């Protein structure tokens, strides 16, 4: 049952017998290859030239074989690109442009080929229609409303629009003002979206920083609470015992005691700091001996308490003893009462560029449900105490929960209309701010953002599809 095979073997008595003459086969293959090339049968020509090369043909036949193979592949690719239109215009026009370049190069080597000339004419006739489709597709991406899309999705869509319009302009042999206007508009919107992405990244960084600080504060509070419940000093966190205050000697003992007693603010801060903060610098005093006959200024005692973290810094002046004249009998030294210099409260500085109050939102009211039962078109309305000047706009901001407050459109009217089929069902927030912009580029906010309102959308997908969405 094993497979077997055999090979026929021919034996001859004449050692000089030749069944095939190599030169004759080579000449015949070359002739048939030339005939196939003249008839645009590039596949058969490639086969015959390959046989001639195997029979020992020279470099000229090898060049003809390479030309026939290149012509075969180029013609096949061009026919496929011209006869099989793609669903999207960009891949198809790329394939047609590639085939057009290959055919033009092939025509230089085969100027008398009817097949190559015919395919070139077909490709050139298709270009205007493809260029128009490319333009329309780019404008559609530019004009379609983007409610419900994220910032990254809107940015990618505008990048596609700019790319398609630029490609359409390269294919246009004559000037087209409408196409130039659409391309300029798409570039401005792309620049605006790129600046919006930069702002969104900055806002995300701020939120992460705030969350990190909150976590650190919570951890610190939990640790402090644990040590308080256990009756342990917070200095145990650093494996250090509190440093004891060195004893005072001589007359300095009473003087320093009087100085500390006369400074309740400093001693109170030192005590409170040792109990309520994570790090405390203990009170330090220097022992000194003063002659009894001549009073000298007493050393200044400074108690330093370091609070970690502290929202405000409190400046406290240390009390200083007042020296007596040398020719006067020395009464009991008297401490100057400490003076607390109040810390000035921070003054709120208005944000640069804010020249309008926040707009006032009118409708829809918060928590309004929008559905097809009330029709298809809805409007956002607001008012402003002021009149917009040149280069100033209302920035209509619509976002989903958890997303940045990013604008979706600019308008100079006090209303913005939209169709609920442009959004998916869900919850949205909206607000209005006055901004300054030029050529679609955001230059700064001119008012605070209005207090956001919330609305919800409940729509029927079938109903929206019947309306062409």
The end-to-end span amounts to 68 Å
Task: Kindly state the number of beta strands.
Answer: 9
Average pLDDT works out at 75
Strand content: 5-15%
Annotation field: number of helices: 10
Indicate the low-confidence ranges by residue numbers: 244-350
Helix content: 40-55%
What best-fitting shape do the alpha-carbon axes yield? elongated
Radius of gyration: 44 Å
Main β-sheet, in a few words? Answer: 6 strands, mixed
SS content category: alpha+beta
What can you see in these coordinates?
- The chain has 469 residues and is an alpha+beta fold.
- The longest helix is centred in the middle third of the chain and has 54 residues, at 177-230.
- The protein is built from ten helices and nine strands.
- Strand 7 and strand 8 form a beta hairpin.
- Strands 2, 4, 5, 7, 8 and 9 form a six-stranded mixed beta sheet that branches. The protein has a three-stranded antiparallel beta sheet with strand order 1-3-6, with no helix packed on it.
- The two termini are 68 Å apart.
- It is elongated.
- It has helices at 22-38, 42-54, 59-83, 89-109, 114-143, 151-171, 177-230, 251-261, 264-276, 461-466, and strands spanning 360-363, 368-371, 377-383, 392-399, 407-411, 415-419, 426-438, 441-445, 453-458.
- The relative contact order is 0.06.
- Helix 6 packs antiparallel against helix 7.
List its traits.
469 residues; alpha+beta; six-stranded mixed beta sheet; three-stranded antiparallel beta sheet; 10 helices; elongated
């Amino acid at each position: 049952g094993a497979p077997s095979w055999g090979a026929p073997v021919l034996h001859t008595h004449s050692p000089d017998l030749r069944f095939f003459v190599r030169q004759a086969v080579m000449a015949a293959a070359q002739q048939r290859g030339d005939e196939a090339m003249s008839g645009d049968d590039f596949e058969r020509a490639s086969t015959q030239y390959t046989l001639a090369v195997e029979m020992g043909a020279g470099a000229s036949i090898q060049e003809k074989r390479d030309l026939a193979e290149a012509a075969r592949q180029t013609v096949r690719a061009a026919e496929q690109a011209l006869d099989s239109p793609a669903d999207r215009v960009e891949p198809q026009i790329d394939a047609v442009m590639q085939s057009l370049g290959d055919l033009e190069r092939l025509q230089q080597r085969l100027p008398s080929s009817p097949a190559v000339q015919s395919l070139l004419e077909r490709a050139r006739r298709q270009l205007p229609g493809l260029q128009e489709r490319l333009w329309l597709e780019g404008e559609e991406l530019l004009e379609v409303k983007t409610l419900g899309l994220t910032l990254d999705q809107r940015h990618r869509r505008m990048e596609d629009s700019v790319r398609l319009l630029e490609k359409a302009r390269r294919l246009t042999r004559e000037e087209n003002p409408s196409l130039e206007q659409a391309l300029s508009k798409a570039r401005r919107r792309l620049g605006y979206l790129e600046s919006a992405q930069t702002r969104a990244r900055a806002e995300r960084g701020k939120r992460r920083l705030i969350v990190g600080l909150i976590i650190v504060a919570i951890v610190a509070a939990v640790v402090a609470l644990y040590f308080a419940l256990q009756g342990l000093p917070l200095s145990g966190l650093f494996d250090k015992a509190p440093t004891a205050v060195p004893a005072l000697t001589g007359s300095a003992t009473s003087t320093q005691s009087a100085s500390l007693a006369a400074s309740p603010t400093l001693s109170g801060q030192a005590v409170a700091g040792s109990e309520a903060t994570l790090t405390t610098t203990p009170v330090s005093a220097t022992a000194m001996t003063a002659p009894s006959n001549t009073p000298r200024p007493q050393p200044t005692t400074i108690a330093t308490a370091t609070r970690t973290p502290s929202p405000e810094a409190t400046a406290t002046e240390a009390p200083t003893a007042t020296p007596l004249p040398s020719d006067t009998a020395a009464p009991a030294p008297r401490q100057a009462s400490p003076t607390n210099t109040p810390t000035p409260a921070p003054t709120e500085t208005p944000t640069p560029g804010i020249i309008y109050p926040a707009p006032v939102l009118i409708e829809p009211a918060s928590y309004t449900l929008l559905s097809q039962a009330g029709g298809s078109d809805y409007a956002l309305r607001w008012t402003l105490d002021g009149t917009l000047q040149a280069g100033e706009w209302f920035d209509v901001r619509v976002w989903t929960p958890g997303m940045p407050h990013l604008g979706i459109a600019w308008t100079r009217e006090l209303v913005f209309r939209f169709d609920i089929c442009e959004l998916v069902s869900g919850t949205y927030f909206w607000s209005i701010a006055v901004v300054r912009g030029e050529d679609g580029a955001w230059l700064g906010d001119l008012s605070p953002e209005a207090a956001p309102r919330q609305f919800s959308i409940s729509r029927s997908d079938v109903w929206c599809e019947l309306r062409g969405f």
